[in-house]
Structures are given as structure tokens and as C-alpha cells.
Amino acid sequence: xxxxxxxxxxxxxxxxxxxxxxxxxxxxxxxxxxxxxxxxxxxxxxxxxxxxxxxxxxxxxxxxxxxxxxxxxxxxxxxxxxxxxxxxxxxxxxxxxxxxxxxxxxxxxxxxxxxxxxxxxxxxxxxxxxxxxxxxxxxxxxxxxxxxxxxxxxxxxxxxxxxxxxxxxxxxxxxxxxxxxxxxxxxxxxxxxxxxxxxxxxxxxxxxxxxxxxxxxxxxxxxxxxxxxxxxxxxxxxxxxxxxxxxxxxxxxxxxxxxxxxxxxxxxxxxxxxxxxxxxxxxxxxxxxxxxxxxxxxxxxxxxxxxxxxxxxxxxxxxxxxxxxxxxxxxxxxxxxxxxxxxxxxxxxxxxxxxxxxxxxxxxxxxxxxxxxxxxxxxxxxxxxxxxxxxxxx
Length: 394
Hints:
Blueprint: H1 15-21, H2 27-33, H3 35-48, H4 55-68, E1 72-76, H5 79-89, E2 97-101, H6 107-114, E3 118-122, E4 144-147, H7 159-169, E5 172-176, E6 184-186, E7 192-194, E8 201-205, E9 219-223, H8 226-236, E10 240-242, E11 245-246, H9 257-267, H10 270-288, E12 294-295, E13 310-314, H11 320-329, H12 359-367, E14 368-371, H13 379-392
Parallel strand pairs: 2-3, 2-4, 4-5, 5-8
Antiparallel strand pairs: 1-9, 6-7, 8-9, 10-11, 12-13, 13-14
Helix pairs in contact: 3-9, 4-9, 5-6, 5-8, 10-13
């Protein structure tokens, strides 16, 4: 397949038009490149009338399983549903504990609480921002049933030692892969496995801004366990084993045919999309390397990075919020993922954590900022973004 050259060296845009074109995520630009293919697949679904659980959904599930080199993909309504269905399928009971991180999007922890389970937080690694594996064993109790690592910003958690801990203590592993679809985990012997296919169950999101994004919402669950796959599929469809045979308590969570068709087209370009993100990230890296007040994203030796976000860590003497405001005034969007770790939110105060308990997560929430990252960035835009970041952080 011909590779797209998303990062252009064209230099003729004037500043005003450049500022108008910089987006945090450019879904329109991505769409225009494959508009005819996408529109044709939408019309196929409309003509077929198979809007729910039809051939387009089956085809996408099969192709996504091939992409991951895993046995089963079960599509569902969104990434949050994927996590909930996974925990329901594993038969956890109220009061059971799931070890995870506080420095993540709320969905990871939200579903644990919704099912009456207890989130047990450990801190994250200060370089990769993923779960600090060295802290896990100290948090395991006789109530612990699972570990839920989050592959954050596009990079895998350190899964080999994590899986060894899970095996030793007979715990399930549920991967939150919403931000890292396409990333490879690299084992010590050099073997590569796609994130989402290492633990017992992997969960991903197709929210529009994701690296593989729908034009609406959607999610998927991956597993190599045949029995689990059957159970997951039943739970996602009201607990049915066959029409009107309800063997399990389930939910209604389905990926519709139009979204599946669109995702299937975009899946064929996913490796190109990831390469474009990596190219843009390398451009940023070169500009920010050796800067005393800016730390570019660290690449873990055990993972490729697919850059769902390009996130800088700022020195303590840089006012992150003032930088964000300054960039906005220059027409450069930015985001903070995440401005407050979950253990400091009102909804989770009952867990008994307080400020100072997770110092790395708390520090990162005050020091990280994410710059525009998507498949349509040009060198003009990158140069402009970099110029103003460096101007403020001099």
C-alpha cells in the first residue's frame, strides 16, 4: 500500500492561514483523503439495510483480529462499555479489588466503581506515565482479582513483569488500550505482541479523535480465550446465547454497521496513520531535545509509541497554564491530559486516598501539556508550534 506523506515541507502558507489550519486533531483533513472510499462503504451499508450486527460489523471484527494477530474481536458501543463488559465476563463480585492507576481518563476507574468493585491505585512511572510495576505487589490483598494497566498516550505499560506478577498471584489482566491501538510490546527476547492481546482481555475505543477513530462512537474487546470470547459476545448482546435465550445478565452495546464500515476502511490505513504520527513526533523531539525546561516523551525500550498524544513534561518553574494561554493566543491549541488525578476528584474520595499519596501522578497533572498531534500536520505547522513553545520556555 502506498504510504501517505502527511508531513509536508511546503512553506508558502502565510501566518494567518496557518493559524486557522492548526487543530488539535484534524478529522476533516483525514476524511478528505479517503472520502470516496468512506462514502462508498456508507452507501453499501445503507443499501443493505443491515445497520446492526450485519456483514460490515463481522468483516471489521475479522480484519481487526488479523491486525492484532489475536483470535477474537468483539465490537461494542464504546471503550467504556468494553471495560465494563470485560469485568462482567470475568465474574468479579462486589468488594473485589482491581489494581490500576489514578493518572488516566475516568472510564478506567468509573466502570470498576459501577460494578461495585474497589479501585486500588498505584502510582505511575515518571518517564513513561504508565503503571509503576514495582508498586503492584505491595497492593495485592486476598480481595485482589485483577490488574488493569493503561497504555497511556500511545505507549504500552511494561507488560512482561506485570504478567509475571499476575501469574504468580493468579490475577486477571485487563488492558485499557484506548490510546495505544497499533503499539507493539517488545518482550526481553525480542518478540513483539500488539497491545490489547497480552492480558486476558484488551479494551479499546474508537472515539473519533483516537488513532483509529469512528465518525461517532464505538469500541472493541480482544481476547485469545475461546470461552471468554463467547461470554463477552453474549454479555454485549443482552446476555443472549441465541435468540431469546438469556443465559447471562448482559447489556446492550453494539457497534453499528455504518461505523464498522468506516472503521474497516480506516483500518487499512492505520499503519500509515501511525507512521505519520511518529514522523511528526520525531520532528517535535528534534526541536525540544536537550532543552533544560522541556522534556519530550520518553520511549520505553519495551514498547513502540503510536502517539495518540504528544505530551511534554515541563520544569517546575514553567507556568503550564500561562503557557497554554499564550499558545492559544498564537492560534496553537493544546490540552492537558489530565489536570487532576482521579484519586483527588470528589467522586473517588471514599477510596481513602489524599494529596501526597501518589506523588508522581500528582506532579504530572501539574506539569504535562499535549501539543497538536494528528495525521495531517505539516512542517509549517510544526515549525510554528515549536517556535512559540520555545519562545515561551526560553
